[in-house]
Design goal:
It is a single chain. By secondary structure, this protein is of the alpha/beta class. It is built from 13 helices and 12 strands. The protein has a 7-stranded parallel β-sheet with strand order 8-7-6-9-10-11-12. A 5-stranded parallel β-sheet has the order 2-1-3-4-5, with helices on both faces. Helix 8 links the parallel strand 7 and strand 8. Helix 1 packs parallel to helix 13 and helix 5 crosses helix 7. It is globular. It binds 2-keto-D-gluconic acid. 2-keto-D-gluconic acid binds next to loops.
Length: 329
């Protein structure tokens, strides 16, 4: 029997019970039962003690935070696919590995993207609010008319795993697929999706009926949908974001919506979550969700499994499968 002490794994937020229980069995684990988001001092304190930290999107692990890492901290096993809350360069400089949970939230996030496309184009939230508030006086031929999505053009910004999953679903709704990506995607996938590649994002935006943001937030994609680019979109177009708020210049988007230069927006993510401009909340042609694109129990369990696999591989001296390499970002 090995007497090697188990590594101290500190989890910053409440995870599903099954995930936490397995972590307790495998590692020396500290949980956050209250799920209260830690303040900076609490996060730094945990960084100083942990061998492995399991952060989420709500923990900002920047260079200053990484300065507080104790000598034992060797792995940030993030619970989530996006890693823009972690300063990857600073982590790697300190010899701290970063892992994430890719793949397991692809379908759920793509489903939510379709739900948002339908919600904004078919005015679901407005209709629901009307019924719920008792304001519905009965059917009328011209009440709550939305727009048909069949036959429309969808421009996907970022054709990675989630972008392709959105495309597959959208095809089932009779939508034609267009995309912009740093690199043109595999010809087989392009053929399967009958997708049109646009090297120029500007050219694509000017021609789409619906635009879906599916790229990660990196220094290169910050405000990719800038004021100038939003102005290229057609006034009847909808924009949907299930990626990261920072990819869209949010004040510029609000201005475009207020000026009627866009038909609507459906947003699951925001630039300064959970803060949202009150003016955005007043608009009827905007659907607002609280960052719940991947929020299924099944997905959260699978994310937890990925985190455990990554920690276990690392502590057993193997290479964790979901290492995030700095050069990808
Ligand atoms: C997660 C997400 O819920 O994984 C991501 O990148 O944006 C979300 O779907 C969240 O990040 C968990 O940390």
């Amino acid at each position: 029997m090995s007497t090697r002490p188990k590594p101290l794994v500190i989890v910053t937020r409440k995870l599903p019970d099954a995930v936490e229980t397995r972590m307790m069995e495998l590692f020396r684990t500290e949980l956050n039962d209250s799920d209260r988001q830690w303040d900076r001092a609490e996060l730094l304190e945990a960084m100083g003690r942990a061998d492995v930290l399991v952060p989420t999107v709500t923990d900002r692990i920047d260079a200053e935070c990484l300065e507080a890492a104790g000598p034992g901290l060797k792995l940030l096993a993030s619970f989530g696919a996006g890693v823009d809350h972690i300063d990857l360069a600073a982590a790697h400089e300190r010899g701290i590995m970063v892992t994430n949970t890719p793949g397991v939230l692809t379908g759920d996030t793509a489903d939510m993207t379709m739900a948002l496309i339908l919600s904004v184009s078919r005015r679901l939230i407005e209709g629901e609010r009307l019924v719920r508030t008792g304001g519905w006086l009965g059917w009328a031929p011209t009440a709550l008319l939305g727009h048909r999505i069949y036959g429309k053009r969808l421009g996907i910004v970022g054709m990675g795993r989630i972008g392709a999953a959105v495309a597959r679903r959208a095809r089932g709704f009779g939508i034609s697929i267009h995309y912009h990506n740093r690199r043109r995607t595999d010809p087989d996938i392009e053929a399967e999706l009958e997708a049109t590649y646009w090297e120029s994002l500007d050219q694509m935006l000017a021609r789409m009926d619906i635009v879906s943001i599916n790229c990660p937030h990196t220094p290169a994609t910050y405000h990719l949908l800038s004021r100038r680019r939003l102005a290229l979109m057609k006034p009847h177009a909808y924009i949907v974001n299930t990626s990261r708020g920072e990819v869209i210049d949010e004040p510029a988007l609000l201005e475009a919506l207020l000026a009627g230069r866009l038909a609507g927006a459906a947003l699951d993510v925001f630039e300064r979550e959970p803060a949202i401009d009150p003016k955005l909340r007043e608009l009827d042609n905007v659907v607002l969700l609280p960052h719940m694109g991947s929020a299924t129990l099944e997905g959260r369990l699978e994310m937890g499994e990925r985190v455990i696999v990554n920690i276990k591989a690392f502590t057993d001296g193997h290479r964790p499968p979901d290492r995030v390499l700095e050069q990808f970002f």
